[in-house]
Amino acid sequence: MPDFGGDAETFRVEAREWLVQNFPPSMKGVDLAMTVDEPIGDAKLWKERMGQKGWGVPTWPTEYGGGGLSSAEARILQQEMAKIGARNPIGGMGVMMFGPTLLEYGSDEQKQRHIPPIVRGELRWCQGYSEPGAGSDLAALQTKAEDKGDHFLINGQKIWTSGAQYADWCFCLVRTDPNHKHEGISFVLIDMRTPGIEVRPIKLISGVSPFCETFFTDVKTPKENLVGPLNGGWTIGKRLLQHERNGLGGGGGSAGRFGSGLPLEQLAKDYVGVDDEGRIADSDLRGRIIRHQMEAKAFMLTLARAMAESKGNSSPSAATSIMKNVGSKVGQDRAELAVEIMGSQGLGWEGPGFKPDELEQVRNWLGGKATTIYGGSQEIQNNIIAKRILGLLDHQ
Amino acid sequence: MAVLTEEQSMLRDAARDWVREKAPVTAFRKLRDTGAPLGYDPAAFVEMAEMGWAGVVIPEAYGGSEFGYLSLGLVLEEMGRTLAASPLIASSLAAASALVIGGTEAQKQAWLPKIAAGEAVATLAVDEGPRHDPLQTGLTAETAGGGYTLTGAKTFVLEGMAADLFVVAARTSGKPGEAEGITLFLVPADAKGLTREKRALADARGYAALSFDGVAVGADAVLGEVGGGCPLLEKTLDRARAGLAAEMLGMSVQAFETTLDYLKTRVQFGQTIGSFQALQHRAAKMFTELELTRSCVEAALTAIDTDAADTPQAVALAKAAAGDTLHLVSREMVQMHGGIGMTDAHDAGLYMKRARALETTFGSTAWHRDRWGRMAGY
User: Fold this and answer.
1) Are residues B248 and B329 in the same domain?
2) What is residue B104's three-state secondary structure?
3) pLDDT of A246 higher than 80
4) Which of A8, A107, A195, B284 shows a CA-CA span of 20 to 30 A to A229?
5) Is B68 helix (H, G, I), strand (E, B) or coil?
6) pLDDT given at position A94
7) How high is the ipTM of this complex?
8) DSSP string, A35-46
9) Are B58 and B67 in contact (CB under 8 A)?
10) A87 touching chain B per CB within 8 A
11) Which positions in chain A touch B275 (Cβ < 8 Å)?
12) Mean pLDDT of A295-308
């Protein structure tokens, strides 16, 4: 355990005491951050207490309800929570992407209004970015917002809006000037209960529907919901994407998430068997598992190094694109290997004859294919690395 | 880059400045073209030792600075950038580590101050075939009159033409393939019955093949335990491997930067070739691999400095990652430079040849992957 010095150690005692008094033991190992249903009982209690304390977003400023902790203190809190199996009950796009962006670019009124409900985990946000004709070329978006004096009138269609069917609010990129591509985009907030919004879930290859199509027909949103200057939304929108990539590539991101709980080598020993020396019987498979595990380790070391070099400040940087690409690739490789190891048993779709882990694996394998597409595809990240980090020019 | 202390930053900057001024690639090219007998410039090594680089992992009591492996790695990385030739890895890192870890007081007193001062060059003599495999040690050491007689051969010994002292892996019992029975010996280069012959490889360094024809040594030549030398040898080799990985990282960084400069200046079809997406994405891939490799190399050196339990795994990862990345970058250096990259006048070929030599030294990428898997229990 690193020694953070006197003040930090005082905080460790404080955090530990608060957790003893407020963490319901029944919540050990339970992850509420991504659940859709309203929590009840101990879950509700734990979420409310963390929300009140502001420790779900430990480094956000106290004036908007955040924890107001330093990075070092936040790490201590994380360590103390991990020790007792306490998971952060506050999460979602509001925490990961929209909140940090609004804290940077929003007016004081907007922060006062929107940040506290995110801190308490009361409202869900969704992301109105991609359109049928604007995927990787996001700035080609056409959803139109017309200035009608006290409000904008919005018409158009968004796609791949994660969790739109459950969202209370949407942060949205809209076109406010048709004559300028990047400088004609604004960043607006839309209450999802406004008349004229229709949400249709999209069924994916994994059989689930985490994304939606969202249609806007004469939707009115008040002028006060414009974040930043009119036609100045592209800068804000890109900043938010950095937060998204950071979250997707980071330790809690795709690299760790896709795949069943068992380590691959254990899965291989169980399903493939071992040779006389205790090695995985299929030598080609063994070689590829080793290669993968070493790459995953290199990725974790790189995350740790990036944290150490930024002195605990986890705000995104240009190198975020590297993490997003490597993290998503490692996650996909893992899922491919897991399915391969389990053979036909790893392709179980539903019904009898399969363990829950096996059924989960096939969905993870397929669902994980989205990770190199969303949040800026692998190819877009490579463009960013080439241009912003390496300084290579655009093709003329 | 790891979070460095002020002293480490100064060391790195000093190495960077010295290498650029005194040991640019042109200096190595001249050594190669003039057929320098040792494979490096002894005068340049004296200068390096004067700056303290030969004693970075040697305790102060024996003339070193005991500055640690991460620190020495910073110097090696800078050396790698310009292909600077020196016995830093063979002598100041590998052989010095063997003595520091396993030497008696008398052995340390006899050799470490000279190694730290650059007055003596020591090196490991381990492999007997073209592929690294310390357990296959077959050179025999038979007891004779209170001492030992060494008979057999070693090959591809790093800086073997320059060495004053060999740390020799020999077999006092057991048979090739077994860990038990390996014993390390300190054998001076002028010992009777020991001969050496240069082995000229593609990377133009000072490799030698050694022949031991009944070389008599005293009992005080044993380094560490009789018959139980394997753990000491492995610890020593892991330090050398981490150092090699640092040199390989430095080479990779430079090969990449040189290539990136070319992508930004070479014009075809009316624009810089670096504006073509096919090349941009390959450049992004190389940059990503470099970042991952740096993390692995620094983690391995830090593991050695902190005597971490998982040091062997960390070293295997670093050597394998550096091997893959250096091959990728040096091959792309040739390919992206096009025809000019195929010429002897260009540096690209020098990097590609050295990449192969370093990858195979003390365990290839494939060897370290297999080792990593075994250590992980599968």
Assistant:
1) yes
2) coil
3) no
4) A195
5) coil
6) 93
7) 0.93
8) --SPP-HHHHHH
9) no
10) no
11) 392-396
12) 92
pLDDT tens-digit readout, B302-321: 999 999 999 999 999 999 99
Look at chain A and report how many structural domains it folds into: 3
In terms of domains, do A192 and A270 share one? no
Residue A340 maps to a domain:
yes
Of B179, B212, B228, the position where a domain reaches its end is B228
For residues A267 and A227, membership in a common domain is answered with no
Range with the poorest average pLDDT among A180-189, A208-217, A236-245, B367-376: A236-245
Q: SS3 of B271, please?
A: strand
CATH assignment of the domain containing B25: 1.10.540.10
Q: Are A120 and A51 in contact (CB under 8 A)?
A: yes
* Cα–Cα dist A155/A219, whole Å: 7
Using the Cβ of B265 and the Cβ atoms of chain A, whether some distance falls under 8 Å is answered with: no
Does A317 reach chain B within 8 Å, measured CB to CB? no
Answer yes or no: are the C-beta atoms of B118 and B48 closer than 8 Å: yes
Q: Once rounded to an integer, what is the mean pLDDT over residues A326-330?
A: 95
pLDDT for A145 equals 97
Which residues of chain B are modeled with pLDDT < 50?
A: none
A362-366, Cβ contacts within 8 angstroms, sequence gap of 24 or more = A363/A206, A363/A207, A363/A208, A364/A206, A364/A258, A364/A259, A364/A260, A364/A335, A364/A338, A365/A258, A365/A335, A365/A336, A365/A338, A365/A339, A366/A204, A366/A205, A366/A206, A366/A207
Residue ending a domain, choose from B120, B143, B172: B120
Q: What is the CATH number of the domain that holds A338?
A: 1.20.140.10
Taking CA–CA distances from B276, the nearest residue in chain A reads A395
Domain for residue B251, yes or no?
Answer: yes
Residue B353 corresponds to which amino acid?
Answer: K
Residues A36 and A77 in one domain: yes
Q: What is the pLDDT of residues A374-391, one digit of tens each?
A: 888 999 999 999 999 999
Query: Which among A244, A309, A340, A379 is annotated as catalytic?
Result: A244
**pTM, 2 dp:** 0.88
Q: What domain range includes position B190?
A: 124-228
From residue A276, alpha-carbon distances to A282, B326, B372, B378 in Å are 12, 35, 18, 12
Half-sphere exposure of A82 (CA within 13 A, CB side): 6
Note if A48 is an active site residue. Answer: no
Are both A145 and A20 inside the same structural domain?
no
CB contact under 8 A, B373 and A389: no
* A103: in domain: no
Q: Is the pLDDT score of A261 beyond 90?
A: no
Domain span holding position A69: 6-91
pLDDT of B6-46, one tens digit each? Answer: 999 999 999 999 999 999 999 999 999 999 999 999 999 99
- The overall longest dimension of chain B from CA atoms, in Å, is 79
